[in-house]
Design goal:
about 280 residues, two-stranded antiparallel sheet, alpha+beta, six-stranded antiparallel β-sheet, elongated
Length: about 280
Amino acid sequence: MQTIMEFNSSQVNEDVWISNLGKNPSLAMLLVNGFGKLVLLHNVSYLQENLFCNEAKVLGLCGSDSQAEVYRIDPKSASTSLELPVPTWRDLKGLQPGTDLNSIVVPDQNPPVARFKNSLWIPPLVLTTVLEGNSLDPAVLIPALSLKFQEFDKSSSSVKACTILRPVLEYLWAISKKLVPATISAVEGSSDAIEWSSRQHFAYICAPSLVSLPPPFPVPPAPGTAIPSSPFRLMTDELRKIREANEKQMLNESQLNDTKKESSGWDKLPDMIQNMILRK
């Protein structure tokens, strides 16, 4: 938690910003898009130029499951440092759900000063709270995150979320006042980005869901319940059906020939008559 928030220091330049991301892939971040809206990106990673990637780029996923879109982020605009006066921590921390953010104002004298960047790296505690809230409205997120921070602090004797994660609430307030410039970002559709997205989905979305659930305990089927067959069993059953059908057809033809012979009366003729007919 502490390490991730240190990545947001105003003293971190673009090169260090990229270096931190390269050493810690799959981080989550908040930023403002070109429409002034808050955006949450997860699994943000830095792709260096190589044989399969013709240029270095920062990519992140927006959304969940297999529908998440790939976004390319401009590191220069994302790492631009900001310094803004903000409301007191007491007011931000005490904001109640449904309260208008306009009720919180910056003090006229000696206001607190927040220092962060256009984008904000967030730890898992913030990420899960935002996802659970199912909203990117700062007025909804600030009280929800404040409550989560206070709950965390009650169970932690060393790490204090309300101290370390204070910039998150200040960043959200600044967004609500449209004080945070947009970070240049756009949907990326290049082949290397799509390949990267597939790897991220498998490693962090698909694979965990597959291994998180243990295989069901085998329960004997109830009497009369059909047992699902394996592919080999199905193949064997099909071959057996074909063999039985062939045998049935041969049996029918044999019975038909026997019927024709019986109906002709040949076996009822005396041997002398049969020999006379055969000589002819």
